[in-house]
Amino acid sequence: MWLLGYYRVLWISLNCKRMMSGSRIISSATEVASWDIPSLPAQAFQSLLGDFVNPSLWLQPLGELMKLEAVELRHIEMELVEPFETSGWRETLRPCIIVAIRSKGLTGYGECVAGAGPWYSYETIQTAWHVLEDFIVPEILGQEIASTEELQRRSGRVRGHPMAKAGLEAALWDLLAQARNVSLANLLGGTKERIESGISIGIQQDISELLRVIEQRAAQGYKRIKLKIKPGWDREVLKAVRKRFPQMQLMADANAAYRFSEREHLKQLDEFGLLMLEQPLDYDDLIDHAALQKELKTPICLDESIKTPEDARKALDLGACKISNIKPGQVGGLLNAKKIHDLCWERGVPVWCGGMLETGIGRAANVALASLPGFTLPNDISASARYWREDMIEPPFVLEADATIRVPTGPGLGVHVVLERLERVIQRRAEFVS
User: Fold this and answer.
1) Does residue 11 have a pLDDT over 50?
2) Mean per-residue pLDDT, 343-348
3) Which CATH code, of 3.40.50.300, 2.60.120.10, 3.30.390.10, 3.40.50.20, is assigned to 66-182+419-433?
4) Is residue 50's pLDDT more than 70?
């Protein structure tokens, strides 16, 4: 029986490779799903397939092909509880695109995190809408798709635009998990029931106000604080915060605000015992970060510089960082985020999941991702009330007494999208039916 199972798995792996290259030789997904395939240890399965697929995905029961019957885009805009300011921009209203995919009576939801302007990324609401409406959706509408790998292949002709791709892919992940009646965390290979939560605090009007905000967040239970910094709002700020909170897990995020020529100044931040210094140099840079890391005691964490799994590999090979922030929207979706997680896990590099001011839809996907074992540092995944007076999901995410957030266990995202709330914040919509 084991030998027969071995050859069946080998046959599937070979056919999967054929399918991904465009040569379909499996007669039907129903036939494959009906086979009695014995479970294999993930390590043995990986050795069979090499690096081609993620074993935690393919060890899931295979199901029917999902015909993408309809795709709906909703451009929404929600008011933040309080303004959020970084070294490069300030937000009071948060736009995003909610993507819905319908198939076989199910609806999967995803969130495209592109912002109003090209401040964090070149992508904006306008570019993402254009790319989705005119290129990616027409490519997949009405098609039968069984995996996110296939979706990634079909959208691969579109260069770049990871946030647009990630929003659509997230909806497919939700749909596939619902179809298999498993949680998204389970489908991704998550192992945690709760994920560690940290909080990001933007630039304030003065240091006294910042200290007040930190006091407030600490009282709410947050044990890891990330502070946004920029030239002129760094050393003295961190000095005051460290003096008031000597034991707090503290990190600083520059959002690419410094130049390599300012490295002597950045070296002064070593004295504050930071958990990490996030993206101090240019948003596209790896080389200067590698050189800077050699001069800093504080671990560098890269964010904007890592846009693909290949970027992550290069960064680790160069020694450009000792920690990685993984944002699904930034890297093109959960599939690529999982690949980066796996790479860092193999190399012993700790990772955490970053946030992009997501609604509950995007937050649910991030929580599922952060349930993977390599996410060993507190994530930028706060309670829903941190950003929204009323989120569009039920139940909202809440911070537990131990500074964690529970991982949903229901099918798909594991949360309910409240359509009435979604309708109230829509700016425009488009529906595409096969």
Assistant:
1) no
2) 97
3) 3.30.390.10
4) no
Reported as half-sphere exposure (CB side, CA atoms, 13 A), residue 224 has a value of: 21
Average pLDDT over residues 45-69: 53
Provide the percentage of residues in the chain whose pLDDT is more than 90: 81
**Facing residues of 228 across strands?**
253
**In the predicted model, is pLDDT for residue 35 greater than 50?**
no
Please check whether residue 19 is in contact with residue 54, taking contact to mean a CB–CB distance below 8 angstroms: no
Instruction: Examine the pLDDT at 59 and tell me if it is beyond 50.
Output: no
What DSSP designation does 396 have? P
Extract the runs of DSSP E, i.e. beta strands, from 292-385: 300-302, 323-326, 351-353
* Residue 54, pLDDT score: 43
Cis preceding-peptide flag for 38 (omega within 30 of 0):
no
Please give the single-letter amino acid code of residue 361: I
Give the residue numbers marked as catalytic. Answer: 228, 327
Enumerate the domain spans of the chain: 66-182+419-433, 187-414
Residue 144 φ then ψ, to 5°? -95, 120
Tell me the C-alpha distance between 210 and 231, whole Å.
16
- What's the rounded Cα separation, in Å, for the pair 117 and 64? 40
- Is the pLDDT at 24 greater than 50, yes or no? no
**pLDDT score of 284:** 95
- What Å distances lie between residue 233 and 97, 135, 236, 252, CA to CA? 33, 42, 7, 11
| Residue 154: closest CA among 138, 175, 167 | 138
- Residue position matching structure tokens 């395939």: 37
* Among 91-95, 177-181, 233-237, the least confident range: 91-95
The tokens for 400 are 């537990």
Which tokens is 376 given? 């060993």
Q: Which pTM was predicted?
A: 0.85
Q: pLDDT value at position 91? A: 86
Encode 101-160 in three state secondary structure.
Answer: EEECCEEEEEEECCECCCCCCCCEHHHHHHHHHHHHHHHHCCCEECCHHHHHHHCCCCCC
Alpha-carbon Rg for the chain, nearest whole angstrom, is 22
- Domain range 187-414, its CATH number among 3.40.630.30, 3.20.20.120, 3.20.20.80, 3.40.1580.10: 3.20.20.120
